[in-house]
Design goal:
This protein is of the alpha/beta class. It has two domains: 8-23 and 288-409, Lyase, Ornithine Decarboxylase, Chain A, domain 1 (Beta Barrel); 30-280, TIM Barrel, CATH 3.20.20.10. The chain is 28% helix and 23% strand. Helix 2 packs parallel to helix 9 and helix 5 packs across helix 6 (125-135). The protein is globular and about 70 Å long. Bound molecules: pyridoxal-5'-phosphate. Pyridoxal-5'-phosphate binds at residues 57, 59-60, 78, 101, 197, 200, 235-238, 279-283.
Length: 429
């Protein structure tokens, strides 16, 4: 905050950023992102007695600038598509620190991974089939990890739960022995790691502790079947604080629980300590981002709600309409002013469900005022859309009082780029 009580991030006044770059605007705080990367790195060093690496789950927010930042902090990266993979490679992430996930990878995506020497996370038999074909005639083995469903329940929204047995991701634990036995006969395959991920926005530590035992059992099995498995990948999932009542563990406590549980589970089974991998997405980038909007129209329904509309909504932040997610918001220039009304903060899209926040206490405001929604760095830009043909916002990276454009705003005319109008439909009417 400055002397007049106006909010700033990275030394930049938010209302000034809004006027300079337009709204809606994603603002990313470089220091916050770097600090989270360091928190993972240092916690892994502190709590795990062997080698370790955090991989950024880039589906949370994929861009060249974010890739370059996390690469410079020494992290690796998860990609799930050719687009995320190309962004990682172009952003300077060393291919040996990239892994390709996905429950239905295309042959093209797998070929791209092989071409760059990226580790492939084998999710199902279809992956094995496609890789067997692609690996034919290639020099050297293909580095692989094997994903399985650990059969662990946790409390989070059902759409972002992945650890329970009835999940589309990974091999069923009963199939592990069969697939590992098969891969042991494939000369092209080098199974380096095992992977499981239990879900996202999780506040409990217990499921992660349980996961260590399940992974260590799988490690024991894989080594018994002749695979030189060196990596154990526990996935991501640590939740963050969106609203005051959210109380997630710190990065350090999460890593401590995971690292100690993996080390203990390996010790119990007398297994040589593997390299520990984890894949944070949300907890790395969500707290580093805020979104700026301009306030517009107001509809007051006596006895009911007051709707206050912003110049964005579900196309730049689909989480409230998808997961009923909550956020914290305030006016950029009067964050501390006393509330005079409670509003429903609506987006501008043609959906009644396009509401960013319900029951938001706000001080007096007028059209043109800049509103800030906090903790929007993850699963906003990356899940956004062009619904209603609304252009995607720009992203600026801030730090040390500097603001740099790292993703430019789309223009409405650019949205017509991929339309093709057949000749016979031209000049009709
Ligand atoms: C989504 C995902 C992550 C990241 O999850 P967060 O909750 O954002 O940390 C990590 N690994 C896999 C396989 C995922 O699908």
């Amino acid at each position: 905050m400055d002397a007049e009580g106006r909010l700033s991030v990275g030394g930049c006044l938010l209302s000034e950023l809004a006027h300079r770059f337009g709204t809606p605007l994603y603002v990313l705080d470089e220091l916050s992102l770097r600090s989270s990367c360091r928190a993972y790195r240092e916690a892994l060093e502190r709590h795990y007695p062997g080698p370790a690496l955090a991989l950024y789950a880039s589906k949370a927010n994929s861009s060249l600038a974010i890739t370059a930042l996390v690469a410079s902090e020494g992290l690796g990266l998860d990609a799930v598509s050719a687009g995320e993979l190309l962004t990682a490679i172009e952003g300077g992430m060393p291919p040996e620190r990239i892994v390709l996930h996905g429950n239905n990878k295309s042959s093209e995506e797998l070929a791209l991974a092989l071409q760059h020497g990226v580790t492939v996370v084998v999710d199902n038999w279809r992956d094995v089939e496609l890789l067997t074909e692609l690996a034919r005639g290639r020099p050297g083995p293909v580095p692989l990890m094997l994903r399985f469903t650990p059969g662990i329940e946790c409390h989070t929204h059902e759409y972002i739960r992945t650890g329970h047995l009835d999940s589309k991701f990974g091999f069923d634990p009963d199939q592990l022995e069969e697939v590992l036995t098969h891969l042991a006969t494939c000369r092209w395959a080098q199974v380096r790691g095992l992977h499981a991920h239990i879900g996202s926005q999780i506040f409990e530590l217990e499921p992660h502790r349980d996961l260590a035992g399940v992974l260590a059992d799988a490690l024991q099995l894989a080594r018994r079947l002749g695979h030189n498995v060196t990596d154990l990948n526990v996935g991501g999932g640590l939740g963050i604080r969106y609203v005051e009542s959210d109380d997630p563990p710190s990065i350090d406590s999460w890593v401590q629980v995971v690292a100690e549980a993996v080390a203990a589970a390996c010790r119990e089974r007398e297994l040589e300590l593997p390299r520990l991998l984890c894949e944070p997405g949300r907890s790395l980038v969500a707290p580093a981002g805020v979104t700026l909007y301009e306030l517009g129209s107001r509809k007051q329904i006596p006895g009911f709600s007051t709707y206050l509309a912003v110049d964005g909504g579900m196309s730049d932040n689909p989480r409230p309409i998808t997961y009923q997610s909550s956020y914290t918001a305030c006016l950029a220039d009067r964050p501390g002013a006393a509330a005079v009304e409670t509003v429903t903060l609506a987006g501008k899209h043609c959906e009644s469900g396009d509401v960013l926040l319900r029951e938001l206490p706000l001080p007096a405001s007028k059209p043109g005022d800049v509103l800030v929604v906090l903790a929007t760095g993850a699963y906003n830009a990356s899940m956004g859309s062009n619904y209603n043909r609304i252009p995607r916002p720009a992203t600026v990276l801030v730090g040390d009082g500097r603001a740099e454009l790292v993703q430019r705003r789309e223009r409405p005319d650019e949205l017509l780029r991929y339309d093709v109008l057949p000749e016979r439909l031209r000049s009709v009417g």
